[in-house]
Write a structure and sequence with these properties.
This is Acyl-CoA dehydrogenase. By secondary structure, this protein is of the alpha+beta class. It has eleven helices and ten strands. Strands 1-4-5-8 form a four-stranded mixed beta sheet, covered by helices on one side. Strands 2-3-7-6 form a four-stranded antiparallel beta sheet, with no helix packed on it. It has a two-stranded antiparallel ribbon with strand order 9-10. Helix 5 runs antiparallel to helix 6. It binds flavin-adenine dinucleotide (FAD).
C-alpha cells in the first residue's frame, strides 16, 4: 500500500507501480515452487536473481546508462514492498552496492561494477560485521595497511548476505586514517568464504568471510581513507527505507494469507472472521501497516525534496518492524493450528521479519537515534 505515493493515479509513478505490482505478482506465482524450495534449502536462486536483474528490478534508482530503471527512491520502495509481499529474492544488497557506487564511486569503479551489479551478472556483498563488532564500529578488528601504492586487508567478517556467491564485496577496515571502505574483488588470493545458515532471508544466505593478507590496489578504496563512516551512513540512511518496505510487504503477506484462510474456516457454526476478537486483530494489524506505509511514503517524499532522511527512515523502519511483527504473530492466532507447519508461509515470514529487525539498523539502534534527535530539540514539535 502506497498511501502518499499513489494519491494521483494519473502520474507515471502510479501507472508504473500498478504495472510492476502485476508483473512481480505474476513472476512470483510462476516461480513459486522454485522460490519455496530455495528458501527451505537456504540457497541463493541465481537464475531468478538474473531474471530479476534483466527486468530492471535490481536497480530501481540506477541511471539507464548503467542498465538501471532510471527511477528514484519511490521505485526502490515499491519493488522492496512487492518483494516482501510475494516472498521474492531481495535486491536490497545490490541496491546498497549501487547506492555506494553512485554516491562515492570513481568513474572507473562505476564502469567496472555498476552495470554488472544492476543486471545481476555480478553479485555484490557487504563485509562490515564481525563476531565482536555489529552495532558499533568501535571494536572492529579488520585492518588495512599500506604496502607501497597497494593496500593489504586482514579481516574476519560474518553475517555477509550472499557472501559465498559474491564477485565483489565492500570491506570496512581500520586504516591509519580510521574506518575506510574498500571494494574487494572476491576472487583475489586470500579471500575465503563459508556459507552459513540463517533462520530468515534464506534466499540471500549469509557467509563468514575471511581476508588474509589480501592485496588490493589503491583504486579499490571507496571514498577517502578515513571516510568510512560517511560512506556507511549515506547508504544506510536510505537503505532503511528498503528494509521498511520489505517489512511492510511481509506483514501484508502474512495478513493476506491468514484472512483468506479465515474467511473460509468454520468453527462451530461461525466463520472465523465473524468473531469480533479476530476482527480486532485484523483491524490492529492493518492500522499498524497503514501507519508504517504512511511513514515510509513520507520518507520517500522527504528524500526526493531534501535528500536528508535519517530520521524519517528510522521512524519508518521502526514502525514497519512493529507492524510486521504484529501482523505475522496475529496471523498465527487468526489461522490456528493450520499455520504451525513448515508448508505454510507464516514461519518463513516471521523469520524474515526477525532478521530485518536486527540487520541493516536494529530496532534498538534506531530507537537510540530517534531519542538523540528528539533530545536535541527543546520542543518535540521542533523535530526536523
Ligand atoms: C541474517 C543476517 C544478515 C546480515 N547481513 C549482513 C551483511 O550482509 N553484512 C554485514 O556486514 N552484516 C550483516 N548482518 C549483521 C547485522 O548488521 C548485525 O547483526 C547487527 O548490526 C547487530 O549486530 P550484532 O548482531 O553483533 O548485535 P550486538 O551489536 O552484539 O547487539 C546485541 C543486541 O544489543 C542491542 N544493542 C546494541 N547496542 C545497543 C545500544 N547502544 N543500546 C541498546 N541496545 C543496543 C542490539 O540492537 C542487539 O539487539 C546480518 C545479520 C543477520 C542476522
Amino acid at each position: 500500500m502506497y498511501p502518499l505515493l499513489s494519491t494521483d493515479e494519473t502520474t507515471d509513478l502510479a501507472r508504473w507501480t500498478e504495472e510492476s505490482q502485476r508483473e512481480l505478482a505474476a513472476f512470483a506465482s510462476q516461480h513459486r515452487a522454485e522460490l519455496d524450495a530455495a528458501n527451505a534449502a537456504g540457497r541463493f536462486p541465481r537464475d531468478l536473481y538474473l531474471e530479476f536483474g534483466r527486468r530492471g528490478y535490481l536497480a530501481p534508482f540506477v541511471p539507464k546508462e548503467y542498465g538501471g530503471l532510471g527511477g528514484g527512491i519511490a521505485e526502490y520502495a515499491v519493488i522492496a514492498e512487492e518483494v516482501g509481499r510475494h516472498g521474492l529474492v531481495s535486491g536490497q544488497i545490490a541496491a546498497q552496492g549501487e547506492r555506494w557506487l553512485l554516491d562515492w564511486g570513481t568513474s572507473e569503479q562505476k564502469d567496472e561494477w555498476l552495470a554488472a551489479i544492476s543486471s545481476g551478472e555480478k553479485i555484490f556483498s557487504e563485509s562490515i560485521s564481525e563476531k565482536n563488532a555489529g552495532s558499533s564500529f568501535k571494536t572492529m578488528k579488520a585492518t588495512a595497511t599500506r604496502a607501497g601504492s597497494d593496500w593489504i586487508i586482514n579481516a574476519q567478517k560474518t553475517h555477509v548476505n550472499m557472501g559465498a556467491d559474491s564477485d565483489v564485496t565492500l570491506v570496512y577496515a581500520i586504516a591509519e586514517e580510521g574506518l575506510t571502505s574498500f571494494l574487494v574483488d572476491a576472487s583475489l588470493p586470500g579471500v575465503e568464504r563459508r556459507q552459513t545458515d540463517p533462520v530468515g532471508l534464506r534466499l540471500v544466505p549469509t557467509a563468514d568471510m575471511s581476508f588474509i593478507d589480501v592485496r588490493i590496489p589503491a583504486s579499490a578504496i571507496l571514498g577517502e581513507p578515513g571516510g568510512g563512516l560517511q560512506t556507511f551512513l549515506s547508504t544506510f540512511n536510505v537503505s532503511r527505507l528498503g528494509n521498511a518496505s520489505e517489512l511492510i510487504g511481509l506483514g501484508r503477506r502474512a495478513m493476506a494469507h491468514a484472512v483468506e484462510y479465515a474467511k473460509q474456516r468454520i468453527v462451530g457454526e461461525s466463520v472465523v472472521t465473524s468473531f469480533q476478537g479476530i476482527q480486532w486483530m485484523i483491524a490492529d494489524a492493518w492500522q499498524a501497516l497503514a501507519a508504517a506505509s504512511l511513514a515510509r511514503d513520507n520518507a520517500v517524499l522527504t528524500y526526493e525534496r531534501t535528500g536528508s532522511v535519517a530520521l524519517e527512515t528510522s521512524l519508518a523502519k521502526r514502525l514497519a518492524i512493529d507492524a510486521a511483527e504484529l501482523a505475522s504473530t496475529s496471523a498465527y492466532s487468526i489461522v490456528g493450528g493450520h499455520g504451525l507447519y513448515f508448508d505454510q508461509p507464516y514461519t518463513a515470514i516471521l523469520n524474515d521479519i526477525k532478521v530485518l529487525k536486527v540487520a541493516g539498523g536494529s530496532s534498538e539502534i534506531l530507537r537510540n537515534y530517534i531519542a538523540t534527535r528528539v533530545l536535541k530539540h527543546n520542543a518535540l514539535e521542533g523535530i526536523a
